[in-house]
Specification:
single chain, mainly alpha, two-stranded antiparallel ribbon
């Protein structure tokens, strides 16, 4: 049994859908962007601009933002490919963890700093 998607159900009730890609990567942003492009009731999509300094390098074409709007690419597929060289350069930390988990391989010291600061 397939569960209905929440966005059309929200539209029937005159509610807005608000996709947020959970800050995984620009590829996740592009996935959500394409979903937003086909839904009639999206008014806002969250995107994380403060992340690791190499986030934009992880994909071949990071999302373009102009005047507060994210633009849908006309490139094939999601509009970008994973840059595997960058992916290999930043592996997810392996092994048991205690305390806060690192995000995208960031050290605990760097988690409190913003890119470019």
């Amino acid at each position: 049994m397939r569960r209905p998607h929440p966005a059309p159900a929200a539209d029937v009730q005159s509610r807005h859908a608000r996709p947020h890609p959970h800050y995984y990567s620009h590829l996740a942003d592009l996935h959500s962007l394409h979903l937003c492009a086909v839904l009639p009731n999206v008014r806002i999509m969250e995107i994380d601009i403060d992340d690791v300094p190499w986030k934009a390098e992880l994909v071949t074409h990071p999302p373009a933002i102009k005047d507060g709007h994210i633009l849908v690419s006309d490139a094939p597929g999601w509009g970008a490919e994973i840059n595997e060289e960058v992916l290999r350069a930043h592996p997810w930390p392996a092994g048991p963890r205690s305390g806060p988990q690192p995000f995208y391989g960031m050290s605990p010291e760097s988690m409190g700093t913003r890119p470019g600061s």
